[in-house]
Design goal:
By secondary structure, the chain is an all-alpha fold. Helix content is 71%, strand content 2%. The protein has a domain of 121 residues.
């Protein structure tokens, strides 16, 4: 979550919402003083909510600087308070804690759920609390969308890698089978060559015996 974006957007909204507290009637067309206004229409006083939102933003900024152990303790405490009281302040404080990056308890899905059930969503458009809720909802929804896109891309890459691995394994299997057949053929060829060598050796011995017999004189008669 971009802290600078939150602070800038919310504070600008708060300044716009709190720049006036009364709606006065327009001056007379001829410039004459028409006396005190017959009716005054007061605008809602957002100063209390403005201060609350400013405190929440300051709280979030402080939480970015605490240790992981202290952050976990703070989360557990705030979570217990919200489960017990369900106040808007406790809800928003819990939302901000769940939005702190690089924590084991960060949960954008729960953030969106908490904000969807926030009573501030139905407040007046000028409500600082509603503006904060709207901004946090947008940021969390965008992050969930980005995370989903990353997961989809990772899933596609995993599928492609698995397909490639399967093709490589199949190719290796075919290569192994071809090598096995080649080894078997070589084995048969070696056996045939061995048999031929043995036959040739026998034939050579017989020919040697025959040549030896031809060189010997005839045997005397009995």
């Amino acid at each position: 979550m971009n802290v600078a974006a939150i602070v800038l957007a919310v504070l600008v909204a708060l300044l716009l919402a709190g720049c006036s507290s009364l709606r006065m009637p327009p001056p007379a067309a001829n410039g004459e003083d028409t006396g005190p206004p017959s009716a005054v229409f007061p605008w809602p006083d957002w100063s209390s909510e403005t201060e609350e939102v400013q405190n929440l933003l300051a709280y979030y900024q402080r939480m970015l600087g605490v240790s992981a152990d202290d952050l976990r303790k703070e989360f557990n405490a705030v979570n217990q308070v919200f489960n017990r009281d369900k106040t808007e302040n406790a809800r928003l404080k819990l939302v901000l804690l769940l939005s702190v990056p690089n924590t084991t308890f960060r949960d954008d899905s729960r953030v969106v759920s908490l904000l969807e059930n926030s009573l501030s969503r139905t407040a007046a458009a000028e409500s600082p609390r509603r503006q904060l809720v709207t901004l946090l909802s947008r940021l969390s929804t965008d992050r969930l969308r980005q995370v989903a896109q990353v997961k989809d891309e990772q899933k596609k890459q995993e599928t492609q890698l698995k397909d490639e691995l399967r093709r490589v394994e199949e190719q290796l299997k075919r290569t192994d089978e071809q090598q096995k057949r080649a080894d078997e053929q070589q084995k048969r060829a070696d056996e045939q060559q061995k048999r031929a060598d043995e036959l040739q050796e026998k034939l050579d011995k017989l020919l040697a015996i025959e040549r030896e017999l031809r060189r010997k004189p005839g045997l005397p008669p009995n």
